[in-house]
Amino acid sequence: MKRILIILIVLSQVFVSCKKMLDINSTRLVSEENMWLSMEDSRAALMGVYGLTKSALNDNNAHWIYGDVRSGEFSVPIRQDLKAIAKHDLNASFGVMNDLKSWRRWYAVVNAANIFLERIQEVKDNDQRYTNNNMVVDIAQARFLRAFAYFYMVRIWGDVPLIVSSKEGTFDDQPREDQSKILAFVEQELQKAADDLPFLFSSNDPQQQGNYYNESNSRWDGALARKTTAYAILAHVAAWQSNYPDAAAYAKFVIDNQQKGSLTLLPTNNLTDPNGFFYDKNRNQLLGFGHIYNHVEGSFTGHIEELTLASPVVNKSIPDMYMSKDKILSIFNESTDERFSADTLGNPVTEVYFKNFNGQYPIFSKVKCIMGGVSDPTFRFYSSATIITRLEDMYLLRAESLAVIGEQAGAIDLLNTIRERRGLTNYSAAKNGDLIDAIFQERNRELMGEGHRWYDMVRQYKIKNDNSDLSNLIRSKGQYWPISAQVLTQNKLLTQNEYWK
């Protein structure tokens, strides 16, 4: 009960401090002098930052709407808001879109991290149990989460305000900073975090001594940012800036240290099983936010399943979005693919990614953690983890990086590692076409439904720099979202993204 109260206190501090920018009304539950006194306070505050990050990702299914719906590769049968997003009509007036235009939840993450970094020394001063090593590792995680929040916002809105202080309860109006400055700050913070984070928690790592908060490693597996997590996000930050030499180096660190981090490449059946990779939390979730069913963390909303599942997988007649037969066959166009393949007549041979292929709505069912990992279709209560990155992502991101900088042999080796894992033959230019296109095609197949596709498309078209509609949209900076009118009203120094004026 005390821990729950502490978390509520922390969240009330976050929301009060964000009130000017985020327009959140709240009240303090207790005075602040009763916080930051013990290591229980530090744990509660840090877990609060993780919780706010998970909320920002899952609210309104934001992670998948930003990353998958906007790609336009899924068809939308009914929902007009999702149809508008898939067509890049981001000024359409729908309630959920107004929420998605607002960065308020992400600045709640930033402010919670700022408060933590400013106040954590007080716990060290007040509680002799709270060691310097514990504090260093906690600070690294808070830095990581703040940096991740800024990177996520930059990919969505481009230039955003850079706020690195809680400002004692209020924000002054601040203009947007150039995203290059934001990303330089992100990279610096991630590097600092990486220096201090362990490969594993509660596992005799010299950078995190003993049992972290008196809990064994099973409690923390897949739940916290680790050294390889920081390097994985560094790789994405570099790739987003087209800094492919650094992206290759950061991804290589993750791949080279996978054993230290207890990371493995996933077999297809584990990737798609209701009790597999997406269920609960596990070490292979390089950065994931679990919804643990046994901890009463499942929900009806905030999961990819809410958007994609329907009959015969769950008791829902029409999915919010589905992939058409033609689109499926164009993506999964090799006959031995373990994820999905079809014979020459178009009949499915392997369909673990899709069910009901020959029905009106092929159902994307790669992720299907219903309740406690069961297959009962009558109760649409989901518990899948929100995955940001995993080891396969790093192999393919390094392959992309090497291909761009001209190291084709290394890129092909990495690509083939993933292809072989999914039952495919080795890459052949004659069969699979241009190497960069083949890598992005494999990223599409492997990471489908994990929130990567839109950002992958932006990077691919930046590399190609052709005259396609998407390339023209990117050149016009139309890949970014408009900023909500509410945020613009609250901060008079902000300006709308030029494309959406």
Explain what you see:
The termini are far apart. The strands form 3 sheets. A two-stranded antiparallel sheet has the order 1-6. A two-stranded antiparallel ribbon has the order 2-3. Helix 1 (2-17) crosses helix 7 (104-126), helix 3 runs antiparallel to helix 7 and helix 19 packs antiparallel against helix 20 (453-464). With 501 residues, it is mainly alpha-helical. The longest helix has 26 residues, at 132-157. It is globular, with a radius of gyration of 22 Å. Helix content is 49%, strand content 3%. It has 22 helices and 6 strands.
Provide tags for this entry.
globular, two-stranded antiparallel sheet, disordered N terminus, 49% helix, two-stranded antiparallel ribbon, mainly alpha
